[in-house]
Amino acid sequence: MTFLLQLLNGLQLGSIFALIALGYTMVYGISKLINFAHGDILMWGGYIIYFTIPFFISMGLPLWLSVVPAILFCMALGGVIEKIAYKPLRNSPRIASLITAIGVSLLLQNIVMKYIGTGALTIPKIFKANPNLPVSVNFIITVVTTAVLLTLLMLYMNKSKYGKAILATSEDYDAARLVGINVNTSISLTFVIGSAVAAVGSLLYVAQYAQITPTMGSMLGIKAFVAAVLGGIGSIPGAVLGGFLLGIVENLTRAYISSQLADAFVFGILVVVLLVKPTGIFGKTMKEKV
Amino acid sequence: MKQFKFVPVVALAASLFLTACGSDAGNSAATEASGDTVKVGALAPLTGDVAIYGQTTLNGEQLAVKEINAAGGINGQQIEFIVEDEKGDTTEATNAYTKLQGEGIVALVGDVTSKPTLAVADLANEDAVPMITPTGTQFDITAGKDHVFRVCFTDPFQGLMLAQYADENLSVSKVAILTNNSSDYSQGVAKAFKEEAEKRGLTVVAEESYGDADTDFSAQLTKIAGVGAETLVIPDYYQKIALIASQARDAGVNATFIGPDGWDGVVEQLEGNTEVVDGALFTNHYSVKDSAEKVQNFINAYKAEYNENPSAFSALGYDAVYMLKQAIEEGGSTESDAIVSALSGIQFDGVTGALTFDADHNPVKSVSIIKIENGEYNLDTVLAPK
Asked: What's chain A's average pLDDT?
């Protein structure tokens, strides 16, 4: 029984990793950029939820609706970051965009520290607990939301016109451009969608952990990145699977081996994956173009 | 915690104010002959990450100085209180100390947080400057240093008192410990708690830990719930406690939470969700609900001066200044040796309790056990060490 509980704990933690990993993987898939600022977009989403919740309380609306302004804000933020910070560097060496991503991450954190404060802020309970359920309400909502978002995203990518354009762009910029796809739009769209998913992640995060700090995005972001690599960076189902696996490994390590070693195991996985199967579980081997 | 938003503003205002005071003090020192005043140095972080602690401690100290000066000073001499900001940084603290020493202070009140305090304590001891830290809890700060004293109790002492309380007042037998493995404070309390609990025949059924950056504690808490712990000691600061307490109830932990003074502030942190810490108990330096006249007088004076409730830091700062006054009066001199020998044998009765010093200059005093009930901090009992 305890083992089952620990597994479910891991699944819940993993769902949040998965939602952030989706953003990493999509952005990497299309622009070969590891967007280290992605965890900080989730952090900003958390602050938007914090500041809009009083409005929803005063209107008597359910608190989870605060995810709407968070999604809108994060979409805009993701779009603006792409336009200002990454687009001008698209033809530069990849290290330039990587360093910029770290810069953007620090900028996003420091803006919050300067204008809002470095302390932790508390978020009211978003989902009311229901003692009749065998598992917590947060758990059900988190896992179901992740599954639904994954399905929607897969459908969008494979069926819709814009989704197909994104897939084509990620295959080959020049070929996509030749068949009339607006590459710039596709890339921007990817950032915006990834940020929207991160905003949903912030709601699920604050529903479970109820506290936001300016630096909360860093470690989450790095772990989500490991999840994306584990699942196969560039692959959407891979990101979700990687997230789940990572959450479960982290939790079981804490429960049965040692809480001090949890992070060591998580990053150990990254090392092992890179050594044994660098493309991850669902990753496909890229053929060198000649 | 709302006041954090105001910290930068307060800190800025304070630094401007202090700069003004500093130059003022410099001028008066130049024009007046030294000897008319008792020069007391103060160190505190007034800007930076831990400014909130420095600011509230200094408020208490300045209130005491103001009261003493208004009542005629020490042995007829006014206190000249020279404040330096050390930004919570060891290097800054060392430099600020050197500056104060150069101004010819007879004693130092400070520093506030443990790391810089330890650095300054070494220097003050070498220079034979009597030093009283109101709030530095780390054990090494005073150990083996003739000239260094503290008002607050140490981390291990809180762990010891928590074990005594759990055994005698809660009458439990199964205790669990959840510690932050990146915090000296957390480890110090936990270690002493465990030793004392085992000495008293309690069973430690679970010992779990987490890292500083962790926000998910469900694995550890599920384990603790599984072994049926009756008391769970969580030594950490209120922000982490708020997170852990919320998740503990979800994970099915029914144990009574106990903890050290870092718990102070957890109710404000939890805002609308305080039922998760209902019934929790923690050790503190004093309680605003303590009806003792000395405590209430202090609280009223503090509120009148600063328009807010004093924190435990303010009370400790206040006591540090009064303790120095008593030592100078009893020693009959502002000479270092006289102050130190008076301090060593002092019987001081302050806002944070009556105290004497042990061989390591740690206070032997009682602790207030605070119980959280319906989102309020109530004084449960005042516990004397056995």
From this structure: 90
pLDDT at B21 over 80: no
**Chain B residue nearest residue A211, CA to CA:** B243
Distance CA A147, CA A158 (A): 17
Task: Enumerate the H helices of chain A as residue ranges.
Answer: 2-31, 38-59, 67-81, 94-115, 137-159, 161-171, 173-178, 183-209, 216-231, 236-252, 262-276
Give mean pLDDT, residues A223-248: 92
CB–CB contacts below 8 A, A to B? 82
Nearest residue in B to A117, CA atom? B5
| Rounded (10°) CA dihedral A216, A219, A221, A226 | -160
How far is the CA of A283 from the CAs of A286, B50, B155, B307, in angstroms? 9, 46, 51, 62
CA B222 to chain centre: 33
Task: For residue A80, list its beta bridge partners.
Answer: none
Chain B residues within 8 A of A218 when measuring between CB atoms: 213
% residues pLDDT > 70 (chain B) = 91
Distance of CA A174 to the CA centre of its chain: 28
Which residues are registered as beta bridge partners of A122? Answer: A211
Q: How far apart are CA B103 and CA B288, in angstroms?
A: 37
pLDDT score, position A285: 62
Answer whether A209 sits within 8 Å of B243, measured CB to CB: yes
Residues of A in Cβ contact (< 8 Å) with B220: 254-255, 259
Reported pTM: 0.77
Determine which of B182, B216, B254, B277 to mutate to test the interface with A (most A C-beta atoms within 10 Å). B216
CA angle B59, B64, B68 (to 5 degrees): 150
Shortest Cα–Cα distance, B128 to chain A (Å)? 38
B111 preceded by a cis bond (ω within 30 of 0): yes
Cα–Cα nearest to A125, from A62, A199, A188, A44: A62
Under DSSP, is residue B110 helix (H, G, I), strand (E, B) or coil?
Answer: coil
**How far away is chain B from the Cα of A229, in angstroms, using its nearest Cα?**
22
Instruction: Name the minimum distance, in Å, from the CA of B49 to any CA of chain A.
Output: 8
Q: Is the dihedral of CA B189, B191, B196, B197 positive or negative?
A: positive
Contacts of A63 (CB under 8 A, 6+ apart): A53, A56, A57, A124, A125, A126
